Amino acid sequence: MLQIEIDRLNKHYAGFHALKDINIAIPRGSFVALVGPSGCGKSTLLRTLAGLEKTSSGDIRIAGTSVIGKPPRERDVAMVFQSYALYPHMDVEHNMNYSMRLKRRPKPEIAERTRAAAETLGLGSLLDRLPKALSGGQRQRVAMGRAIVRNPKVFLFDEPLSNLDAALRVHMRSEIRKLHERLKATSVYVTHDQVEAMTMADHIVVMRAGVVEQQGSPLDLYDKPANKFVAGFIGSPAMNFIPAIVSPDGHSLTIEGDAATMLVLDRKLAPGARLWAGLRPEHLSLTPVAGSLAIDAVVASVESTGSMTFIMVAVGAQQLVVAHSGRPGVEKGGAVRLHISPRNIHLFDRETELAVSG
């Protein structure tokens, strides 16, 4: 059953079209990430879901009921912001249950919901502490606890981990995902970090300039990007793109600026077509495998993190990044031969930037 339905949603600001015909269907209990660069409209979409922004046209339905025109308090959603927005003079317990006390809910209900949320989030021993005595991660859990006690139909997260350091972000990603699974909640999570989206979400919506570029499971977006933008946005390090031309027989590519390199395809394409060939850094190998294609390159630089080595290479006039597990023993200026399977070559039209399947 669908918990959220967004149907042809548009949002205008004084001549600026912020959201353009957005269509998204979110099943009950799913974790959906809205991801894209700054200014793509993802936070505007989340605020529109919450009722903090008015729609210009279109419909939003939560649990089958249209919420257009309804204020936030009548939408049964809870929002967790990048800023923790805790009351500094209230302890953890009173920060968490403040909204319930405002609604004059029965005291036993307030106490039970607060206890349950605190237990879920590991805050049971911190209920009497003020926010100033908490770490960043603890404050973020209090902010989530405040949302949990409301028992909403939908949780909305607006880049909640942006203020945390890298190590704590990794930990909190896991905590939020575990929390989602325990509560069997429906969650919509905004982030500019595609790694967060890939590791946390069941379903990802990639946005750019107010438009949904593609949506699907994390692996669908990784394996079958609909266009060059999605291909370059999903995956870390980002996909390499090299300009290429389809050979007269339609079965191979010639890299522009390096006529000596010919990539034989596993499909037939229109002869002479001008394409972008997309090669993921992790699909480029220094070791040949059965059926792989060879690309001769020169090492431009080497960056090692210990377990991984990132090798920047030149193929003619083109620059590529190779992600290698371990320490390959290559040096700047050295010649290397790269290998890639034909099935791992993504192709995009040079003009439309849409994926080309052949």
TrEMBL record:
Residues 4-234 form the ABC transporter domain. Transmembrane segments: none annotated. SMART domains: AAA (SM00382). Keywords: ATP-binding, Nucleotide-binding, Transport. One of its GO terms (biological process) is carbohydrate transport. Signal peptide: none annotated. It is found in: Cell inner membrane. One of its GO terms (cellular component) is ATP-binding cassette (ABC) transporter complex, substrate-binding subunit-containing. It holds the Pfam family TOBE_2. GO terms for molecular function: ABC-type transporter activity; ATP binding; ATP hydrolysis activity. Its main location: membrane. It is a peripheral membrane protein. It comes from the Bacteria. Belongs to the ABC transporter superfamily. NCBIfam families: PRK11650.1. This is Glycerol-3-phosphate ABC transporter ATP-binding protein. It comes from Paramesorhizobium deserti.
